[in-house]
Amino acid sequence: MTEYEAVIGLETHIQLNTQTKIFCACKADSWNDPPNHNICPICAGLPGTLPALNQAVVDKGALLAAAMHCAIQPVSHFDRKNYFYPDLPKGYQITQYDQPLALGGYLDLPVSAEAGDYVRRINIHKLHLEEDAGKTKNENGQRLIDFNRCGAPLVEMVTEPDLRSADEAAQYLIRLRQLLRWLGVSEADMEKGHLRCDANVSIRPKGAAYLNPKTEIKNVNSITAVRAAIQTEIERQTRAVAAGERIESWTLEWDDDAGVLRKMRSKETEADYHYFREPDLLPLRLDPARLQALLAGLPELPLERRARFGAQYGLPEYDADLLTSERSLSEYFEAAVAAYAGDPKRLSNWMMNDVLRMIHERGVAAGELRLTPEHLAEIIRLVDAGTVNTPTGKALLEKVQESGRPPQQIVAGEGLAQVSDASQIRAICAEVLAENPEQVASYKSGKTSLIGWFVGQAMRKSGGKADPQRVRALFEELLG
User: Fold this and answer.
1) Are the C-beta atoms of residues 156 and 139 closer than 8 Å to each other?
2) Rounded to an integer, what distance in angstroms lies between the CA atom of residue 44 and that of residue 378?
3) Where are the alpha helices (DSSP H) in 117-269?
4) How far apart are CA 199 and CA 216, in angstroms?
5) Beta carbons of 100 and 126 less than 8 angstroms apart
6) How far apart are CA 58 and CA 128, in angstroms?
7) What pLDDT score does 269 carry?
8) Which of 480, 374, 382, 465 lies closest to 428 in space, CA to CA?
């Protein structure tokens, strides 16, 4: 029986987070605005209007191209892609065709699979700039059009057919979204259309080098949906080929609610769009000095930082991956490591168990916390020194976050220092035993799990300031 493999390429459309649109002064991101509110004669395509290129779009596109290891072209051109659709008022889209902003490039994709972890290099065919179209939606049996998104700045990035499974495609989008946010070039929120994906899918006998006819999946608005849609199409094509059917090049629409693919139309070819040079825009010539200054600010990339965290700080792969999931979080961790000057793994545990919870509960970035990296390092040092116990240290995190006051100041002002005097702790433990003769009897008759209850009683009497380990050891001695 023939074993088949999937051959997948992705076309991603990335809305850049510039203030204004690519060719006019309208606000670029109109997600929360009323329909047809952020439009002008230029983005509405009225006759006689002229586009003017937004330099910030070029800068962000070039920064992304550099991060994707693309060859940035010193001269590129804009073209007209001609097609009719109700949400494209001009009847054409200004895009880049045969001379785009950047060529080549790649993303090394770390993949975790049942058979083992591996890295797959996903090569980039090209990266180009273009304007977005509007959007249509069905409501109460009517087809409605919103032109707000017309002219929003996009980067379209086309991969080579290097992906081999629905899971790999989903992982690629996760890593791409991470990179976009890391660079600060896009919010990359798929729900809001900042990151959209079309998937080209075909199958072939495993190990073959040729390409078979492909289908294109459109209208996929989440990573979960991308994975499901691609997997559904792989299974459909596999069944069809096994039954002796021929795969036709259709454009398919994913219905997320029903979990099914539906045929939209036969797939267009490039010839159908009648590309020609945009006559209203000059060639895009990059200023070498500006480009050099821009690329000098390119940060260490997330996968590189992940590898360095493992090598430099001795972190397990899980920790390093989580702590580099967002740029702000990784920078917070490094600042805390420098301030703590202790075991990075110990600090990592506090970050992942407590600081991340605070970030998620508040919906903020790490750098927006009032609990600074220096505060976190100070709290852990207080615990290490025995000045406060671990529960008090955890409570200090919230106290510092709410007040912004230094941890040591809170400890002194609220009398939170740990009770470490042996005679004082012994007296508290003895008092607990004297007040609870029935529990003492139960413990001595074999119910040793009560030790935790005794510790809890003593901790309450000490106001949470006793050393729990010392309290437990004393109870074991007194009850022995």
Assistant:
1) no
2) 57
3) 166-183, 223-242
4) 6
5) yes
6) 10
7) 66
8) 465
* Dist. CA 281–CA 77, nearest whole Å: 8
SS3 139: strand
DSSP H or E stretch at residue 320: helix 317-323
Specify which residues 72 forms β-bridges with: 102
The yes-or-no verdict on residue 268 having pLDDT over 70 is no
- pLDDT bin (cut points 50, 70, 90) of residue 107 is very high
Question: Residue 136: in which H helix or E strand, if any?
Answer: strand 135-139
Task: Look up tokens 């991060």; give the residue.
Answer: 67
Q: What pLDDT, on a 0 to 100 scale, did the predictor assign at position 264?
A: 84
- What pLDDT sits at residue 472? 83
pLDDT digits over 68-93, tens only?
999 999 999 999 999 998 999 999 99
Give the pLDDT confidence score for residue 267 in this predicted structure: 64
DSSP 91-130: SEEEE--SS-SEE--EEEEEE--TT--EEEEEEEEEEEEE
Band of residue 185 on the pLDDT scale cut at 50, 70, 90: very high
**Cα distance between residue 230 and residue 174, in whole Å:** 15
Q: Measure CA 122 to chain center.
A: 18
Q: How many residues does the chain have?
A: 480
**What is the residue whose two structure tokens read 């207080």?**
382
By CB atoms closer than 10 A (0-12, 13-18, 19+), residue 442 is middle
Q: Exposed, middle or buried by CB within 10 Å (0-12, 13-18, 19+), for 125? A: middle
**Is 129:101 a contact under the CB 8 Å cutoff?**
yes
Q: Six-digit token pair at 453?
A: 């209850």
Give every CB contact of residue 400 below 8 A, 6+ residues apart in sequence. Answer: 370, 371, 375, 379, 406, 407, 410
pLDDT digits (tens, 9 = 90+) for 422-468: 777 777 878 888 888 888 888 888 888 888 888 888 888 777 777 77
The helix or strand, by DSSP H or E, that contains position 443, with its residue range, turns out to be helix 437-444
Structure token pair of residue 266 = 């036969």
Cβ atoms of 427 and 470 within 8 Å: the answer is no
Position of tokens 């509007």?
134
Are 262 and 62 in contact, with CB atoms under 8 Å apart? no
Considering only CA atoms, which of 199, 198, 192 is closest in space to residue 152?
A: 192
Q: Residue 152 is encoded by which pair of tokens?
A: 């929003």
pLDDT tens sequence across 122-150:
999 999 999 999 998 888 888 899 999 99
| pTM assigned to the model | 0.86
